[in-house]
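Support reply, case 0932

Customer input (verbatim):
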Amino acid sequence: MSASAVARSAGPAPWVAWVASARAWLFLGLLILGFEIWAEVADGATFIGNVLNIRSIAVFAVAPLLLAIGQTFVIISGGIDLSVGFTMGLASVTVSHVTNVITPVYGTAIGLVAGMAAGIAVSIVPGLVNGFLIAQLRVPPFIGTLGMYGVARGVAYLLAGGTTVPVDNDALSWIGNGTIGGVPVVVILTVLALLVLHYMLSQSKFGQYTYAIGGNRAAAVRAGINVRGTTMRLYVLSAVCAAVGGILYAGRFSAGAAQAGEPLLLDSIAAVVIGGASLFGGSGTVVGTLIGALIVAVIQYGLVFINVEPFWQFVAVGVVIIISVLVDQAQRKGGRVDE
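Our regenerated output:
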């Protein structure tokens, strides 16, 4: 082995490795600092010191974060779920229809519970179909979930009649727009979901199996892991997370819409990748996804705050995704030992 090869095999300097591992946190800090400086210089105001801004960013991040949490599990396993956006829309339309039917007959509380249960139950169907196609029939995740993207989209629009579905339920509206101690209810519920799924990924056997499948599927099979069953559950979990997003959407806007989650697909994948997960599988965390979702929300809200045309949001998020993937590839190459 040559001297240069030995040097390369030793890996990057410790500070370089630390910066790479903490890149999402550092980038979030730089973003906030940049928008704060802009606000101070341009308007003599504050960006992050404004409670309204903080609350708005948190609410802004809720829906893409819920999609991204489920997406995190799928991406860690080496897959991807392109159907989450319209699964969310399908759930929001279902919640609205069922709540409207049940509430006048049985009251607000039962109407809410029935609507939420129906929304989650409907979302499980695309999750099961995705899981079956990928785990049992060995359809590539991109193709299988892209097909379900189209199916869920069509069914959601059919149920909605091509329009939005207004919903009248005070409890659902409170969930979408109410506060507890000044903190939006949707944020509190999302934090609770985040904690549960963080524990599931980091502490449970299901989480260990998810990492194992993404790291080396063949080795996971040899280790006795039920790869097919776990894969089925991963896609169902992703669909249920999308359904929760649909429920909160219906509450926030007092209406269900087939296209509710359509613009959030890119944001959900961006949050996972920016948060440090590898699209090749085997790595990623729920906490990283949280930071990624906050980065996306800060970019989008911050650009509006400084009066930049909203279309630049797509450009900015796309650039950040590309940079994150390049960093991930550089880390993977840097981890190899040259012979």
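We compared this against your earlier run and they match. Two observations from our side: The chain has one domain: 21-330. The chain is about 75% helix and 0% strand. Please reopen the case if you see a mismatch on your end.
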